[in-house]
Structures are given as C-alpha cells and as structure tokens.
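Discussion board: Methods & Data

I've been asked by a reviewer to show the raw model output for two of the constructs in my manuscript, not just the figures. I'm not sure how much to include, so I'm pasting the format here to get opinions. Each protein appears as its amino acid sequence followed by a line of discrete structure tokens. Is this the kind of thing reviewers expect to see in a supplement, or should I convert it first? Here is construct A:
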Amino acid sequence: MAFGLYSLIESAILCLNAICILHEERFLAKIGWGVDQHRGFGESPGVKSQVLNLIRSIRTVMRFPLIGVNIATIILKLLFG
C-alpha cells in the first residue's frame, strides 16, 4: 500500500474523528482533564488547559463539516476501493 496524499488526508480525518468523540465527563475527567480546571486571575493558561481548549474548539467547529467529509470519504472508499 503506497503512502500518498489520500492516505495523509484519511489519517487526518481519523484523528479529527478521534478528537471529536472524546467525552469530557466520561473519559477526560477520569484522567484528570475535566472541565473544573481553576486558574487564578491574571495567570497564563497551562499546557493542559490549552489542549482542552483546542479539543473543545475542534469539537465545536468541525462537528458538521466532519459529517460531510466522512460521508464523502466513505463514498470514495466504496467506489474506488
């Protein structure tokens, strides 16, 4: 199996799907990455809170476009193998 542009795009889609299905209360809270992250006034956010913000942003922005991209990927896989 050759590594090409389609394989790279497909792996990016799979990573976005993995990020979008992470549930904060069920999974992230168990490993200590829950919503209840407190920081003081004027403190810069740490790496953990920045990653959590990135996960929330990806989940918010990519929810509906990712559905269309997944459907297109499935159709392409069915047609061209």
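Construct B, same format:
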Amino acid sequence: MAAESEPEGTINININSPCINLEKLPHLTDYLPTLKTYTNPLQHNPFFLPSDGFYVTPTDIVLRHIAYDISSSSSSASPHLAYLRAGPRKQIFFDPTDSTRAAIVNCGGLCPGLNTVIRELVVGLWDLYGLRHIYGIQAGYRGFYSTDMAPLQLNPKMVHGWHKTGGTLLQTSRGGFHLQNIVDAIQHNGFNQVYIIGGDGSMRGAVKIFDEIRRRKLNIGVVGIPKTVDNDVGIIDRSFGFQTAVEMAQQAINAAHVEAESAVNGIGLVKLMGRSTGHIALHATLSSRDVDCCLIPENKFYLEGKGGLFEFLGHRLKENGHAVVVVAEGAGQDMIPRTDAQKEEKDESGNPVFLDVGSWLKTELKKWWDRDHPNELFTVKYIDPTYMIRAVPANATDNLYCTLLAHSAIHGIMAGYTGFVCGPINGNYAYIPLVEVAQAKNEVNTRDHKWAWVRSVTSQPDFEKT
C-alpha cells in the first residue's frame, strides 16, 4: 500500500467556538510527528463503497451532556464538553499489509460478551483493514511476559463461533501487572497495537502502559475497552454485558419469588453483583416488579428500629405473607462483623475482600424472627447467582454492542489515536481519553428519578434516621 507524504490535516484541531470544549485525544504524532499516513483500505473495499459522510472528520464531535435547563445562567455560560466521534478516518497511520501486529488481552473477572469483543476485534482487523498478524495474550497482563504462555495467533476461522460462548477463550486472571515487563514484552514481540479489555483496575494499568510507551516514544497505539458487569465505568452510557446480567438476574428473582410465595412467612433473598454500585440490583428490581426491597451500596440501610429493614419486612409479611429482597454484594459491608485480618485482606487486583452480605443478612433475618415472632413459621431462601450471571454468553443486544465497541476501537487506533477508550455517550460512539475513564465512576444517584422509581415500585423506606 502506498504511503502518503504528508498527514491529512491536524489531528486534534481547536474548534473555534466558545460553546464547545473539545477534549484533546492523545495521538501518536504528538511525539512521533513524522509518521507516514496511508489511505484507508475501506476506500477500496467493495462491500462499503464509501460515500459522502462515511468517514469521520476531526470536527465530528459528541457532546458529553445533552440535557440542559436553558433558563439557567450556568447552562449557557459554561462551554459544552465534547469528545471526538468514533468511526473510520480517511487516512490511517498503520500499514496493515506490512508489519502491523496487534495484541488483544482481557484481564480480571468474567463478563458476558468478552468472547464477542475478542472475536469482533479479530474479524474487524482482518476483514476491514487486512491485518494478518493478530495475537491473543493469554491469562491477563501476566501473559505478556510469562514464559509459560506464548501469544496465541488468531484468525477469523479460529474465532468464528466465540460469540456464542460465555467466559473468555483467551483465559484471564487478576493481578500480574508488572509495567516494565509488560512494555518490554510488547516491544520485544513487535506489537504496534494493544487492545486492553478490562475493568477499572485494568484501565488504570492501561494508563500506565500508555504513559510508558509514550515515554519511550514507541510507535504503539493503546486502546482500552471497559469491561465491568457492574456497569460502574463512568462517562459511557453502559458497560457491555450489563443488559445480559440484568436479564439473567430475572431468573434468580423469579425463583426467589416462587420460593417465598410457596412458604408461610417466606422471604426470598437474592444477592446480585455490584461491589461499589447497585446498577444490576436497581435495573433487575425495576424489570421484575416482584421485589419488595432493593439494597445497594449507595444507599445505607439499617436493620433495627423505626424505618429499618426488619420493621418494613414485618409489615410486608403481614400484608402479603411473603417478600423478596435483592441485595447488591457491596451493600451493608460496614455492618458485617469482621476480624482485623479480614479488614486488611485484599484480592489479587488490590480490592478489599468483601464478606458475603447475603449469608450475613439471612442469619440476621432468622435471629430477628426468632426473637420477635417465636414459634411462628418462617423461611429464608437465599439465592446467589453471581457466577451464573457473569459466565453466560451475551444476549443479542450486548452482542451488537460488543461489535460496535470493537470496530470503534479498531477505527480509532488505525487512525493513530492512542491512550483512549471507545464507548457510547448519549447513544453516539466517541473516543475518550483513557485517563478520564480510569478515574471516573458511575454510581447510582439516589436523588434522581430512577431511584425514586425503585422506591415507588417497592414502597421500601428511605433508611434515613430522623
């Protein structure tokens, strides 16, 4: 493929508008200004036939916020934050027919859609841009430098049916982040593109990898694809796999409802994923309508006394004869007794080890009933579907989402952008600086309409002591 002599225009332009604050996106030319450009091979792809508007330009942007109160002075005084829109560029900065080598790694826990993202990265790189050197890094970050796990060469035929399978066929692990070893291995293997799929810890690691590559002035693009079933990644609309997780949570809630309804004074207790945020619990509650109380990390609750959980469940059992409680795994952790050693315990990713709030709550419910209602029938059925939820294949909606994420990542990195994350903002796919996503959190706002909707559906107390 013939190289062009000059780059096409300025990569990060300054949009001349006092109303728009365009977030600058890192680009390889920031520290390698003499890089050659190439015509995008999509220009000659018979299946695309690019027409006017097909290629994204440096002036195509996506606004961070689209809802404003126009009567407020602050809405007009501050410029609107914007990001570059994702999509193919007419000029690219890698020669796909020559020496470009791509590495794909996934880190941390499982999530529906992992295999779909990997599959679509391979197929997209191969079919859209003609790459023939695509490698999967096995077992997370440590797979870059481990002598026991060589990079696995991937092609479309090999990954053809991966999207129908849960988990990750590249395997994964937590921890293993050793910056110098990882970047040395990337450089030694001649990788020019690195696709990192992972949660907030993995994204923080990706920032360090990007910074070290930039410090060494290497012609290597780095892109992060945020993966967390909890949906706790900030800025983007949602994480891939989240909708599948909510759908699977319905099965557990339905089972808990049947168990509770079939017993005298029966309580169905379901623990769902959500270490620091309660999005799965919230959305599953709204989708189910069989839930009587939803407990999430963002909303502190208490057990005893007026307005407490026991009082509420006592009324609900008296009225209906049964109740269903959904609790996110991170809720109530400050109430669970633990030893000094347990307080200091960390997992391989450096996160505090949580105790089982479901088992603790089940025990407390039984103690409460035995104390206040002796000799009365009472049953608690505890269901923990955690690993069932995260290990299933993605549903149709998440599969499509994973495809768009993968293709957006490919288009961005081929265009020379680096140190970025791709994701939908207000329904439009955009490129966001990696460091922003690594720092942002998406917590449930218990003061907004959605949480009010949960409380109106469940009639649960606000757990605010007066």
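Answer (T.O., handling editor elsewhere):
This is acceptable in a supplement if you add a one-line summary per construct. For B, something like: The two ends are 72 Å apart (CA to CA).
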